[in-house]
Amino acid sequence: MLRSWYDWVIRMSEHPKALWTLAGVSFAESSFFPIPPDLMLIPMVIAQRAKAWLIAGVCTIASVVGGFFGYAIGFFLLETVGKWLLEFYGMSGGIAEFQEWYAKWGLWVILIKGATPIPYKLVTIASGAAHFDLLVFGLASLATRGARFFLVAALLYVYGEPIRGFIEKHLTLVTTAFVAVILAGFVAIRFL
Fold first, then answer.
1. Of the candidates 55, 79, 86, 76, which has an alpha carbon nearest to the alpha carbon of residue 153?
2. Fewer CB near the terminus (10 Å): N or C of the chain?
């Protein structure tokens, strides 16, 4: 089943609307959706290495725009949608303390957590809740998300065929490791 899913993702990554789908996933992941865009970014770059920079650019821009949506959730809808999302991700306690801490270290939070498996939507919602400077938030998001997605694209561009061969040969291991990294991000949020 895993092999058929992988083959389907590779086929879909070459679909004419694949960039739009990637943009939608990147936007949603930055504000509310739990699945990272890497699940589409990686197979898309593997399937179309010549478009690696375009794919990374679309992923970055959509992620930053989605980050502004997450910021708006934290800024305008913290008491409703924001609290529900924070509870869903296990971050509902101590919002006032977190806002004070975030006011002091916000830029570093954005820069560090934007490149890690810790769910970025939590950073975007927290930035809005803390009323963090919108321009700094946007520039930091662009820098950290761009660095993450362009690094992945660059590695796949340079080492695409060997990586594709490794993934296809060890699909279960790669999938398990990827899921473990995502889960580790959620666990880290619970205990940080």
1. 55
2. N
